[in-house]
Amino acid sequence: MSTEQAHFEELSHAKIIGLTGGIASGKSTISAYFGALGVSIIDADLISREIVAQGEPALESIVAQFGKDLLLKDGELNREKLGEIIFSDEVAREALNAILHPQIGATFMKRREQLSQEGNRWLIYDAALIVENNLQDLCEGLIVVSCDPDIQKARLMDRNNLSSIEAQKRLDSQFQLSKKVALADWIIDNSGSLAASQKQVDKLFRELCLLFGKPKAKNEYD
After folding, report:
1. Which residues pair with 146 in a beta bridge?
2. Which residues pair with 15 in a beta bridge?
3. What is the CATH number of domain 3-45+105-210?
4. pLDDT tens digits for 64-90?
5. What are the residues whose beta carbons fall under 8 Å from the beta carbon of 71, sequence distance 6 or more?
6. CA pair distance 147, 152, nearest whole angstrom
C-alpha cells in the first residue's frame, strides 16, 4: 500500500468524490463548475505547486534528483522544463512521483480533516493520477472527464503551443483516457460547448446531493 493510499484510509469523515481525466480534457473547467455550486475542491495540482515552492523540502529533493538546471534565476522550479523531462522519460516520471505523492497525500489529509470539521459532507478530489495511483477504490465514486481524442489533441496544441508531434508524444506518455472512462462511476463528456458541459455538471451535482446530501451541512450556530 502506498503512503498516499494510507492517508486516504486514515480519514473517515467527508466523503471523497474523485475527479480525473486526461491532459487537456477539461478537468479543471469541470472542477471549477462544481466549485461554483458550493462543493469544496481539493486540487492535487495546486498542492503540488505549493510543496515545490522555494524553500520546501520537495524542491530540494527534486534538485537533488534532477539537478540545479531545473531552477529558474529566482530559485523557483522551472515546471515547464521539468515537464519536458518527465513526459519523455518514464523512469524520471516515477522518480518525481515518489517525491511528490507522499507529500500530496499528507497535505490532502490535513485539508480533508479541516473541511470535515467545517461541516462538509462530501468534497471533490481533483487529481490527474487517481487511476494511475489506484486511488479510485478509496473514493466514494469517480467522475471522469472525457473528451474526443482529436479535440483533446487540438486543445493541448493550442494550450501549450505544441506541434502535432509534440502533443501526440505527451498524450502517448499518459494513461489512456478510455481506460479511465471504463472505471468511472460518472462520465462528463467535455467534447462540446461549455454550456453543454455545465449542464452535465448541474445534473450530476443534483444526483450527488440525493446520494450524499448537500455538500456542506448547515452549522447549528449559523
Report:
1. 189
2. 122
3. 3.40.50.300
4. 999 999 999 999 999 989 988 887 788
5. 63, 77, 78
6. 6
Q: Which residues does residue 120 pair with via DSSP β-bridges, in sequence order? A: 216
Q: Please report, as a single letter, which amino acid is at residue 88.
A: S
State the pTM of this model: 0.85
Residues 51-70 have pLDDT tens digits of 999 999 999 999 999 999 99
Residue 27, CA distances (Å) to 15, 107, 165 in order = 20, 21, 23
* Contact between residue 122 and residue 17 where contact means Cβ atoms under 8 Å apart: yes
Cβ within 8 Å of residue 95, ≥6 positions away: 65, 66
pLDDT in tens, 135-192: 998 899 999 999 999 999 999 999 999 999 999 988 988 899 999 999 999 999 999 9
